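Notebook B, p. 112. Complex prediction, attempt 2.
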Amino acid sequence: MRAPDTNEILLQVEGVSLAFGGVKALRDVSFDIRKGEIRAIIGPNGAGKTSMLNVINGFYHPNHGAITFKGRTRAQMQPFEASRGGIARTFQNVALFKGMSALDNIMAGRTLKMRRGLLWQMLRYGPALAEEIEHRHRVEEIIDFLEIEAIRKVPVARLPYGLQKRVELGRALAMEPDLLLLDEPMAGMNLEEKEDMSRFIIDVNNHYGTTIALIEHDMAVVMDLSHRVAVLDHGVKIADGTPDEVKENQAVIDAYLGVAH
Amino acid sequence: MAVGGSFDTFPKLLARNAAQFSSRPAFRHKDLGIWQTWTWAQVAGIVRAYAAGLHRLGLQPGDTIAIVGSNRPKLYWTLMAAQALRAIPVPVYSDAVADELAYVLAHADAKFVAAQDQEQVDKVFSVSDRLPHLRKVVYDEPRGLDDYDHDRLIAIHDVIEDGRAALAASAALGRQIDEFIRQGEGSDISIILYTSGTTGASKGVMLSARGCIDAATDTVRFDNLTDKDVALAYLPLAWVGDHYLNYAQGIIAGFCMACPESGATIEQDRREIGPTFYFAPPRGFEAMLTRVMIRIEDAAAIKRRMFGYFLGIARRYGESILTGKPVPLSGRLLYALGRLIVYEPLKNVLGLSRVRVAYTAGEAIGPDLFAFYRSIGLNLKQLYGQTEAFLYVTCQPDGEIYSDTVGPAAPNVDIRIAETGEVQFRSPGMFVGYFKDQAKTAEAMTSDGYVKTGDAGFFDEKTGHLKIIDRAKDVGRLADGTMFAPKYLENKLKFFPNIKEAVVYGDSRDFVCAFLNIDPVAVANWAERNNIAYGSYQELAGHPLVYDMVAKDVAEVNRSLAEGKVLAGAQIRRFLILHKELDADDGELTRTQKVRRGFIAERYAPLVTAIYDGSHEADISTEVTFEDGRKGVIAARVKIRDLQTIGATEPLGKAA
């Protein structure tokens, strides 16, 4: 796999802490994501991985610390600002519009890119039509890319789990993000589905040059896919480095195998 | 009329089509959700540029170029471009595992390979140390191939653009390409098709350009195919059926080949394109019907009853109306009503509304299945053929259709039955020989120039049509001398919707036994309707109620055998349901999905022993190959069921 060409930092997390009442989900976590890399965040259950993603895309607001994305530092941000800024994500539990077709779900990912208002859209005439055709074309490219032509018109509720995950990835890609956050993209998948998904993640990274941050439990997948891995345990970053470095790290081994704290 | 005429090679026909049908569609392909169309004139231009590009890469007359992939315009154009340069295209099954691929590529001395995508490119490169002649791999879909070493790899698109630029720059190159086409002769080897290898390693069947064109011209006339027709090109490129029905007939008649978006979208694509000429193996028609029946089961009661009633009407009058026999007025009226509210909407859902001529072949088709499609007004016919004949040996003319025969000899085909019962033929399209295998070629021919089909058959006295019973070498005898035709039994078993595959043993044995595969779609649906819980295919296959249901089907086969005289002694005494589906990846089926009886007997030896020694269950563990080539082991305890035989062989005669 190709390593990213530059060391340009896309996202910098500095000293982020997050608490829910007395529960400290994140404690003084710092790390960075370089442009073009696949960055994994791993850790045992309850380590704070999803909280970290939620902080990055503005769903949670950290109590302390700062996040710098594309050179702009901010303390508070709303999720829609994050997506406008170029951060897209998928969810641990699939969060699609179940009654809508795969195609419509992915089209929904283009919403922020559409310039014509509701009235124009309803008229579906002239500029609105041209705009829809243009967006549909982008969506069709994604459908082709993810090899889901056969389910284009199928309501997603009728799809098996692995395909729903793929549609969700498609919707995130439709936003043409600079940073793609994947929350356990392979949870609950069988071996074949995992291999497919791994291939798509690598292809997205290669083909679109999208920077990817992913949370994953399957260590084999993480070690194969990612360029760098950050390890969280009980809200604290305990290791950071290449997959090989992390694998050798005693603190990581302890965290996973369970040592008395 | 658009037929082969004086044209003796496909590149010359392509030039004719570019002039005669210039703005008519030649190819369609669904890409990014939209059907893209290329006219004959456009295709001729692209192929000329592609040929120039390949020529510049070093493809010489007589070289072989292998083609691995699914039905995509660029791969069909590879066939055309190679033939324009008098090189020989060799299509290879795209689902072949690397090892099989290596065998064919090495045997064919492939100098170039045209691969569809990364998957196929990976396979070729993984065995490239066994391919000393390999110079370049060209590919269609660039995805995932960015990081590959492009010394030996080039996109077909780039080859075409390079050729186009070179043609524009040099008129001499254009003249050279035209000269290649002009020099092409009917005796040139037009294509090498590797047989699927029901018996042993696959053989390269060489077909001449003249032979291909003459044979296909005859059937284009026979079925009145014209440039107004449309075919859905979805059959494997490496199979004679695709090369004949779509490629050869398409170029000769000038009709449009529509390539599906992907293998998974064929159903939808068929609906959208509405082909007028259609081929599917019996398995394809059966899968289609099974899906319809499953959905009807889930429909509202009134729809179900309407469907049931009008299918009854269709059964009574449909066939007669299709063949133009007299039918009472009331029958005609009811049938017309049924057409309006059931048959036509059903055909529309299946994408068969516009089909004028449909064929099926490859295996025997169940009489009920065959009758169903004909009764709803689909002109479905049977043909019998093989790669060595360039497909057609016999085919059914309109109006003379029987489910148990394969029809009279196709135009200009000469058939005879040898004393051994083997069918032998001479035909315009018959093969030139096996590539690099004189001995096998000699073996396959008689001294007076007939091709041995290896199938046993006879001409039906009533109709004069050919009937095929089995592979000649498979027709055996039980230990007591009773005649036994395994395939005949297997087909009878497979006609039941619950049984997907059957393998029958009995040669030199005391009695006949069957190994069965249940149909996962049909049986799973049945299980759901009857609230039967199961966790896996293996568990479902071993379920006692499934055994009960299948036992009824097997008993039904025995009953029908008892009615005939010849095979009444070959009734099935014991059967078992295998714990896994037979799979071509494990070598149990050929790539054309025919069972390999001998191999299965070896692989499941403990089961064969158990079924003949009277045991009621047996343990088996088998190695399986996953799609990515890794291997694993499946273990199971398989139950064996006994059956009563009927009639002559029953110990207590009815007369007693």
